[in-house]
Amino acid sequence: MRHRKSTVSQLPPFLVSAPAKLIVFGEHAVVHKKASIAAALSLRSYLLVTPLPKHIRTITLKFPDIGIDQTWNIDDLPWDIFQRTDKKQFYFNSIQQLDSDLEEALEPHLFMFRDDKTKKAAKAFLYLYLSLGDKHSCGAVYSLRSTIPIGAGLGSSASVSVCLSTALQLQMGTLATPFNGMKPHETQLQLKRINNWAFVGEMCIHNFPSGVDNTVATGGKAVYFKRPNYQKPPQVKFLKNFPELPLLLVNTRQSRATSKLVASVSKLIESHEVIAGHLLDAIDKVSEEANEIITSEDFSPTQNNNPEFKRLLELVRINHGLLVSLGVSHPKLERIRELTDIYDVGATKLTGAGGGGCSFTLLKPNVKPAQMEALEARLAEEGFEKYETTLGGHGVGVMWPAVRNFGDGRGDVEITTELHLSAKGFGEVEALVGSTGPGWRYWSEWDPDVLNPLS
Ligand SMILES: Nc1ncnc2c1ncn2[C@@H]1O[C@H](COP(=O)(O)OP(=O)(O)O)[C@@H](O)[C@H]1O
Ligand SMILES: C[C@@](O)(CCOP(=O)(O)O)CC(=O)O
């Protein structure tokens, strides 16, 4: 009897999305067990998963932002070692370090990638695909569009890692899409599993991440985050009443890689142990005090002459100075800081790994529109890019199936790989799949009252 090939996809195409983040206080120090505060941004990545008919045994990664268009035969992947009983990891495991044997087994499947950017993104995908799936996993096309600048300190890698972790766990059936009436405990457990595997993706891209970026990209809104012991889960407080801080976010357009800057700080700590230790302790104190201010009941970021807000401005300035001492600023970041001082709009610090990337300015309440306009014109003139974004939004979300009604008479439109890839620029990506439109469901925020999802 002839075997009839199935042409039916197991799952419908679906989309997942996760936000960028802004580290308000504590970058770098957080890698070295100190406190940090970070919030989700409204810039996001969108990963479309298009499952293939059962007889097509390939997976394809289309990451046009960094030029990846790569297909692998599922049956050629190193399943044997990933499935070996002494190596096998499960979706419910929380992994604190990559397995070097598994990393080595992936090498022959990554030879086509000539630079770190593409190789690490593809490695994160394969490491998660082989860990979470099995050799009978179905074929699919994974296409990614993002409105987050890459390598600019806004956590693009964490956002991608959260998308990969979520998409693969949904595909493997170990996560349910959020629904009305999902028990809070179940929601938190699912967020925890998404976050655990996103951390694995981050380790593939960053080498030594603290975990703050993926934690914010998973649960959204804002967190206080500290990891005093890498063998244990981090301390995370979810800042439910995080205020809408008035800020200016500016990109130097100077690209850099987080992994290199994190390594440079570790080197400085090795050669100036005591002094660098004091710098990190000082950053810890800054984050702790900022946390107290931000979470205090009478804090107001818009009230003129609010003494607590004045103190917060000073903490931003101090934190930047300490990061300069750690050697992670850049002349372009210093130029933005200088201009924001000249125009007297507030306090500026670098955000993320530094070495380029973005700065943010906490704006004083009494800044006049004309003052801002003059500054913004000057920044644009000097080649800097300003982002319109808001703080404290949603974490990871899903659109299942990837079908949208645009209200333009076309009825339900399926988001195909071709459509997803054809969107030009951030504006078209947002218009096509943006999280402000209909169809998205979120696992909601971390909820410390239900359980500490990271414990
Ligand atoms: N849109 C994207 N498509 C594919 N890979 C991405 C994308 N955004 C980020 N990445 C991955 O994350 C890396 C950037 O991470 P990193 O240097 O930590 O900067 P960031 O501060 O933006 O997180 C890229 O080199 C790439 O491997
Ligand atoms: C420098 C660091 O504190 C933040 C890095 O942020 P980003 O990758 O530059 O977005 C590293 C980390 O926390 O893993």
UniProtKB/TrEMBL annotation:
<comment type="similarity">
    <text>Belongs to the GHMP kinase family. Mevalonate kinase subfamily.</text>
</comment>
<protein>
    <recommendedName>
        <fullName>Mevalonate kinase</fullName>
        <ecNumber>2.7.1.36</ecNumber>
    </recommendedName>
</protein>
<dbReference type="InterPro" id="IPR020568">
    <property type="entry name" value="Ribosomal_Su5_D2-typ_SF"/>
</dbReference>
<feature type="domain" description="GHMP kinase C-terminal">
    <location>
        <begin position="309"/>
        <end position="370"/>
    </location>
</feature>
<dbReference type="GO" id="GO:0005524">
    <property type="term" value="F:ATP binding"/>
</dbReference>
<dbReference type="GO" id="GO:0006696">
    <property type="term" value="P:ergosterol biosynthetic process"/>
</dbReference>
<keyword id="KW-0963">Cytoplasm</keyword>
<dbReference type="InterPro" id="IPR014721">
    <property type="entry name" value="Ribsml_uS5_D2-typ_fold_subgr"/>
</dbReference>
<dbReference type="InterPro" id="IPR006203">
    <property type="entry name" value="GHMP_knse_ATP-bd_CS"/>
</dbReference>
<dbReference type="InterPro" id="IPR036554">
    <property type="entry name" value="GHMP_kinase_C_sf"/>
</dbReference>
<dbReference type="Pfam" id="PF00288">
    <property type="entry name" value="GHMP_kinases_N"/>
</dbReference>
<comment type="pathway">
    <text>Isoprenoid biosynthesis; isopentenyl diphosphate biosynthesis via mevalonate pathway; isopentenyl diphosphate from (R)-mevalonate: step 1/3.</text>
</comment>
<dbReference type="GO" id="GO:0046872">
    <property type="term" value="F:metal ion binding"/>
</dbReference>
<dbReference type="GO" id="GO:0005829">
    <property type="term" value="C:cytosol"/>
</dbReference>
<keyword id="KW-1207">Sterol metabolism</keyword>
<keyword id="KW-0808">Transferase</keyword>
<keyword id="KW-0418">Kinase</keyword>
<dbReference type="InterPro" id="IPR013750">
    <property type="entry name" value="GHMP_kinase_C_dom"/>
</dbReference>
<keyword id="KW-0067">ATP-binding</keyword>
<keyword id="KW-0547">Nucleotide-binding</keyword>
<keyword id="KW-0756">Sterol biosynthesis</keyword>
<comment type="function">
    <text>Mevalonate kinase; part of the second module of ergosterol biosynthesis pathway that includes the middle steps of the pathway. The second module is carried out in the vacuole and involves the formation of farnesyl diphosphate, which is also an important intermediate in the biosynthesis of ubiquinone, dolichol, heme and prenylated proteins.</text>
</comment>
<keyword id="KW-0460">Magnesium</keyword>
<dbReference type="InterPro" id="IPR006204">
    <property type="entry name" value="GHMP_kinase_N_dom"/>
</dbReference>
<dbReference type="GO" id="GO:0019287">
    <property type="term" value="P:isopentenyl diphosphate biosynthetic process, mevalonate pathway"/>
</dbReference>
<keyword id="KW-0479">Metal-binding</keyword>
<dbReference type="InterPro" id="IPR006205">
    <property type="entry name" value="Mev_gal_kin"/>
</dbReference>
<dbReference type="GO" id="GO:0004496">
    <property type="term" value="F:mevalonate kinase activity"/>
</dbReference>
<keyword id="KW-0753">Steroid metabolism</keyword>
<keyword id="KW-0443">Lipid metabolism</keyword>
<keyword id="KW-0752">Steroid biosynthesis</keyword>
<keyword id="KW-0444">Lipid biosynthesis</keyword>
<feature type="domain" description="GHMP kinase N-terminal">
    <location>
        <begin position="120"/>
        <end position="217"/>
    </location>
</feature>
<dbReference type="Pfam" id="PF08544">
    <property type="entry name" value="GHMP_kinases_C"/>
</dbReference>
